[in-house]
Design brief:
alpha+beta
Length: 453
Amino acid sequence: MALITKAIKGTKDVLPKDIHKNQYVEAVMSDVAQRFGYREIRTPTFEYTQLFQRGVGDTTDVVQKEMYTFDDKGGRSITLRPEVTAGAVRSYLENGLCNEALPQKVCYLGPCFRYEKPQAGRLREFHQFGAECFGTSSPLADAELIAFAKQIFDELGVSGLSLEINSIGCPTCRAEYHKALKEYFSSKSDELCDTCRDRLDRNPMRILDCKSPVCSEIASGAPVVTDYLCDECREHFEKVREYLSIMNIEYTVNPKIVRGLDYYTKTVFEFISNEIGAQGTVCGGGRYDGLVKELGGQDTPALGFGMGIERLMLLMEAQNAEFPPAPVPDLFVVAMGDKATAKAIDIVKDMRAEGFSAIMDTNQRSLRAQLKYADKLGAKYSVIIGDNEVDNGVTQLKNMETGEQQEIELNMFVSGFYNITLSDQLEDIEINGEELDFASLFGLNKNEQQGEE
């Protein structure tokens, strides 16, 4: 019984008291994406395993050690997505986005799955916001993508991040770099882990990304990729740096950054924090000019980034970032008796139709219990309706913060609520000597206006 009441290791619940923080972060991301010209795409959470083997790379830790892979009932090998880029490329090709105006700029937000050792900032089910741009080889696109990610951090008030960039070249110049790496690591092959010895022949760059302390120490003395860039890649990287400087974006060149996925080419980058322990990379990305062709499309330049939501929020909490307050009900209606309940149902329905959050107690408890419930919910206003209030057609609207009460008509409740609550927020305004009716001014309370007609 204990197993079904306990979340699986590496997963996390987000409770109602905290969900507004996630929603705020996601809303900022969506808003910034729209301003940079990115439109949302939603792809499946599972794909054919081969997509990730070819796209992510079968020499990566992700494919070799971390994927959740299983055979479905049809005998097909299926994998829960460990990242979204490969699926986005598949969708780009399958749905003909490649035939539309380029560049195609898409963004996404959703769960990903990796079998890793859970720790602060690293979950087995995590959520990722990301962006992909298909159809531009310009270094300006690289700089703008980095600016996009930075804009999100700036608007969320995240500070202390360092931007590290590198170029890992194209297949042509990287071939020379691979030779140099192979020569270097071959002399130390006996000290490498079994996985890295296998990588030595297949993809020696992956050794640079190994998490083994021994391999990391050996890799610290390896040749650096920037010494092997061809003229085109070097010029591209210099342009990226120039555009970042024009944008006043500070950065450090770190020739050790290679990223953990095989599809990257040329520019790679990471936004790193030293405030959340070992999992300090909050955002990472770069260019992947060969991936679209690798997955069956035309030769198409492309680039993108991924940003972990949980890791970002961990950092925001460490920095005591400001979040908007959790939403609370605008109105709590206390109903006592059958007639009062019928009237309360009508009022709540009209209030919700006008966009307000209106709550009544479906348990129909005592007056004291309902008022206590309203207080726990943090309702801004409350009314008590009993048989007398229904007969007289009026009740008292109470400001739960100040305790002030004002009379309000039950049959004109919504317009009365507008006038009273807006009056609480604004100074009394007179036009031509007459008190302003806020509901009429804003064209609100449509239901009651129609009823009067």
